[in-house]
Specification:
Blueprint: H1 4-9, H2 11-20, H3 27-63, H4 67-103, E1 123-128, H5 143-149, E2 153-154, H6 155-162, E3 168-169, H7 171-190, E4 195-196, E5 202-204, H8 205-210, E6 222-223, E7 228-230, H9 235-239, E8 246-248, E9 254-263, E10 282-292, H10 297-314, E11 319-323, E12 335-343, E13 348-357, H11 361-366, E14 369-371, E15 379-380, E16 382-390, H12 391-401, E17 409-410, E18 424-425
Parallel strand pairs: 4-9, 8-14
Antiparallel strand pairs: 1-11, 2-3, 5-7, 6-7, 9-10, 10-16, 11-12, 12-13, 13-16, 14-15, 17-18
Length: 429
């Protein structure tokens, strides 16, 4: 959420930021709404002050036995009292209209973010590793062909249970997915300094509002009863751990990680990735969240991205890291790195992690602040989030990159301790 004071201070800069997101200028409109809000507040305050003053004047009039003046003042007080609910409502309506307008607008990109319209304008930062080598006459299979060939990936049964975009994993593949999550959590907690969190996957409206899933992206979420939502990512509960709180600056940065189920309606994904596990309604993901100071946020963003990259390095997967352009960034982000893993079955890179720095955009919505010991006032924290990484997509990457000519899957060595001695997955008998 944006700070109207900053917009008033430099409306041209705000409109330039919106233009980079291919959005029309809004500063003048927002300032106008703020003027209405201020006018409503001023009118309400004047009425309250006059009511208080008139109430005192009644006593003075009665003291000098001026009954006519006292009655006139009583009538004025009664009229003002009757008008107060209307003035209160007008003030609240003006504030709500301004807030709604501010909430509808995305975050402003950092100057360093490349301009662009869509994913074709993203900029590659680095490329790590090399693709696996297969015989020239061998066409690598996609993950769903491999999984179904092993008899351990069942989309038909999942469709009977829940419909499209679900999967049932069985046996060694179910264990491999669990192994991937355990490996990631162990890496982030023991080597990268993140505190493991086991959060609820059901959250209330306020939590979804705080991280900006609501109200704009309501259709992308799964509602779960009155005022409850299934989380689209553990970013939501973990970031909201500092909501309505003042965190001692000495405790920053806070670094959290969680491995959870995630749920997305994929409302805008009709016809995309309809086969396989790339785009599911329910999936597992290891999430990274950092709460930090404004001064340390950019360095923390680089650090978080490196932590996510390390997962793929340990799995010996070929990947590239790209900076998203202004037209491809998420709503809350000021800068985003996507990490894309190589999938030989698709013969292309696919996103497996997205790491974003959000500035104080979410913190304002959550009223999440920090205070230094020697500071006179509080300030908003800066928030970051990233996938560390998407577990289902990591499973896809392992299947496609570690496939053998006979359809079996070699398990990456780093996962052996989690697989109970299994080093290869072969067709279920």
């Amino acid at each position: 959420m944006h700070d109207i004071r900053l917009i008033r201070d430099d409306p041209q800069a705000f409109d330039r930021g919106l233009a980079r997101r291919s959005l029309p200028a809004r500063a003048a409109e927002l300032i106008g709404l703020d003027e209405r809000r201020k006018a409503a507040i001023a009118e309400n305050q004047r009425a309250q002050e006059r009511r208080n003053a008139a109430s005192k004047e009644i006593g003075a009039a009665m003291g000098r036995k001026d009954a006519a003046a006292a009655e006139a003042l009583k009538a004025e007080v009664a009229e003002l009292k009757a008008k107060m609910p209307e003035l209160d409502a007008a003030e609240k309506a003006a504030a709500a209209e301004l807030d709604a307008a501010l909430m509808s607008l995305p975050n402003i990109p950092f100057d360093e973010v490349p301009d662009g319209k869509d994913e074709n304008d993203n900029v590659e930062v680095r490329r790590v590793g090399t693709p696996p080598k297969f015989p020239d006459d061998f066409k690598p299979k996609e993950h769903y062909e491999l999984g179904e060939g092993l008899g351990l990936m069942d989309f038909e049964s999942a469709a009977k249970l829940s419909g499209a975009r679900f999967v049932v994993l069985k046996g060694a593949l179910a264990r491999l997915e669990r192994a991937l999550m355990q490996f990631m959590l162990d890496l982030h907690t023991t080597e990268h300094g993140y505190q493991e969190i086991n959060p609820p996957v059901l959250v209330r409206d306020d939590a979804m509002f705080g991280t900006a899933q609501l109200p704009k992206f309501r259709d992308d979420q799964f509602a779960a009863g009155d005022s409850f939502w299934l989380i689209p990512t553990a970013e939501v509960p973990m970031t909201n751990l500092v909501r309505d709180a003042i965190t001692d600056e000495k405790k920053l940065p806070l670094r959290f990680t969680a491995g959870t189920l995630c749920f997305r309606a994929e409302a805008g994904a009709a016809g995309r990735d309809t086969r396989g596990m790339i785009r599911q309604h329910q999936f597992e993901k290891v999430e990274l969240v950092s709460i930090t100071t404004p001064e340390d946020a950019l360095a923390e963003h680089e650090r978080m991205t490196a932590c996510a990259e390390e997962v793929l390095k340990r799995l010996d997967l070929h990947f590239r890291t790209i900076t998203l352009c202004t037209g491809d960034m998420g709503f809350s982000s000021r800068k985003t790195y996507d990490i894309e893993v190589w999938l030989p079955g698709q013969d292309r890179f696919r996103e497996i992690s997205s790491c974003s720095v959000c500035g104080d955009f979410q913190a304002r919505r959550m009223n999440a602040r920090t205070k230094a010991a020697d500071a006179k006032s509080t300030r908003f924290v800066h928030t970051l989030n990233g996938s560390g990484v998407a577990v289902g997509r990591a499973l896809v990457a392992v299947l496609e990159n570690y496939q053998n000519l006979d359809g079996s899957i070699t398990i990456p060595e780093v996962l052996w301790p989690y697989m109970g001695g299994l080093t290869r997955i072969e067709k279920a008998i």
